């Protein structure tokens, strides 16, 4: 009996220990690489500056600076490696513990004639989208970051997707690609040619178009959040509806994505593309960030009554966990500070113009304003 018990304990500790060892191993490798890189760059930097040998405190200061730089490369590991996928799985687990299977928002169909757009809540605040052309029975999935959440909806409606579209490589938008490919091996998976999106079978470039039934999509290349981010513009005409923009992490209601992989001038050019769209175009963003974004908009653009009015509406929707999508491009022009870098009120609040006459700002000034607004937003409320 004792031998049996001993054996069982060995097995339990063997499995648990093995798992712990694997996790600890990964964490050790991760930090050893960072620290080695920091020591290496500090030594090279010091040798190149011809002031070697450094005093102890000077070396330590430079070592700390280099360590900081190396830690910033955590983003690289998140966005480019399977370590990022591991963190993504942890995020899914946390969201499930906090919100259960139903997620952060109620499932609500938005109908426009034969067109239906269904935002699918995933993780803590992400949306995938199911776009349906009822007349031709075509179903398109957009940004399936969590396969299980999407699959649950597909199963409940007995639907198979005709294609999967992805806006950018971050795991919360593309993490379900491989699993869904397993379920639907013949379904094409579309993504930007320059963004290294996992699992895609068809790469897309700026202005490319493609159709499924009456669903006509056009690609807009919008680098800034990532180097190859794209957004999808759906033609509303066949449905007698406004066009729809599926904007991923490029533009949110009253916000824009963090500039991880491009300079503010690049992001500005991508945001200006959005401003060329008709005012009635519907905006379907990749996250439920409206409340936090509008709180910030009301702070940085304190006289803006449109931002105040929209915030009140959003607060009442969120009290019942209702989705705040879509907004329209016309609305965004009136309160989204990231699309308003030409506006006098914003530039004055940023301290970029003084009491003199207001003249139309150059793109250089607007890019600086964009960088300042982004920095202030990051301090106000950190979101991707
Ligand atoms: Zn992203």
Euclidean distance between termini CA atoms:
56 Å
Unreliable stretches: 9-19, 45-53
In round numbers, the mean pLDDT is 86
Tell me the fraction of residues in β-strands, as a range: 15-25%
Largest sheet entry: 7 strands, mixed
* Gyration radius, in Å: 24 Å
Number of helices: 13
Secondary-structure element pattern, one letter each:
HHHHEEEEHEHHEEEEEEEEHEHHEHHH
Helix content: 40-55%
Structural class: alpha/beta
- Report the principal-axis shape: globular
Spatial strand sequence of the major β-sheet? 1-2-3-4-5-6-7
Strand tally is 15
Q: Could you tell me which ligands this complex binds, including any ions or cofactors?
A: zinc ion
In short:
By secondary structure, the protein is of the alpha/beta class. Helices cover 47% and strands 17% of the residues.
Give the helix/strand layout.
Elements: H1 2-48, H2 56-72, H3 74-80, H4 82-99, E1 110-112, E2 115-122, E3 126-133, E4 138-142, H5 147-156, E5 163-165, H6 171-174, H7 177-183, E6 189-192, E7 202-204, E8 209-212, E9 215-221, E10 230-234, E11 244-248, E12 251-252, E13 255-256, H8 264-275, E14 282-285, H9 290-300, H10 305-319, E15 327-328, H11 329-335, H12 344-349, H13 363-380
Parallel strand pairs: 4-5, 5-6, 6-7, 11-14
Antiparallel strand pairs: 1-2, 2-3, 3-4, 8-9, 9-10, 10-11, 12-13, 14-15
Helix pairs in contact: 1-2, 3-4, 8-13, 9-10
Bound molecules: zinc ion.
């Amino acid at each position: 009996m004792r031998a049996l018990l001993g054996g069982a304990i060995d097995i339990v500790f063997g499995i648990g220990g093995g798992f712990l060892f694997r996790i600890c191993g990964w964490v050790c490798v991760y930090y050893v690489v960072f620290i080695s890189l920091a020591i290496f760059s500090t030594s090279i930097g010091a040798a190149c500056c011809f002031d070697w040998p450094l005093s102890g405190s000077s070396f330590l200061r430079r070592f700390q600076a280099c360590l900081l730089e190396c830690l910033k490369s955590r983003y690289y590991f998140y966005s480019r490696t399977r370590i990022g996928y591991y963190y993504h799985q942890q995020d899914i687990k946390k969201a499930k513990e906090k919100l259960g299977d139903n997620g952060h928002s109620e499932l609500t169909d938005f109908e426009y004639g034969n067109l239906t757009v269904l935002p699918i809540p995933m993780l803590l605040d992400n949306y995938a989208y199911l776009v349906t052309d009822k007349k031709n029975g075509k179903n398109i999935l957009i940004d399936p970051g969590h396969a299980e959440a999407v699959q649950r909806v597909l199963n409940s409606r007995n639907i198979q997707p005709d294609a999967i579209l992805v806006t950018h490589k971050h795991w919360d938008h593309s993490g379900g690609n491989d699993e869904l490919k397993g379920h639907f091996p013949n379904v094409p998976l579309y993504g930007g040619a320059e963004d290294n999106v996992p699992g895609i079978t068809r790469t897309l470039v700026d202005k490319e178009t493609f159709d499924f039934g009456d669903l006509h999509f056009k690609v807009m290349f919008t680098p800034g959040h990532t180097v190859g981010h794209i957004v999808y513009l759906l033609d509303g005409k066949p449905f007698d509806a406004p066009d729809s923009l599926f904007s991923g992490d490029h533009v949110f209601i009253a916000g824009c994505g963090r500039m991880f992989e491009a300079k503010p001038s690049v992001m500005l050019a991508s945001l200006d593309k959005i401003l060329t769209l008709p005012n009635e175009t519907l905006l379907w963003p990749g996250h439920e960030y409206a409340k936090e974004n509008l709180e910030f908009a009301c702070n940085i653009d304190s006289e803006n009554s449109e931002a105040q009015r929209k915030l009140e509406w959003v607060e009442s929707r969120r009290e019942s966990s209702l989705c705040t999508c879509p907004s329209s491009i016309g609305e965004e022009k009136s309160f989204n500070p990231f699309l308003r870098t030409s506006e006098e009120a914003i530039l004055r609040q940023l301290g970029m113009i003084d009491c003199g006459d207001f003249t139309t700002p150059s793109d250089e000034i607007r890019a600086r304003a964009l960088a300042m607004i982004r920095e202030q937003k990051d301090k106000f409320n950190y979101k991707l």
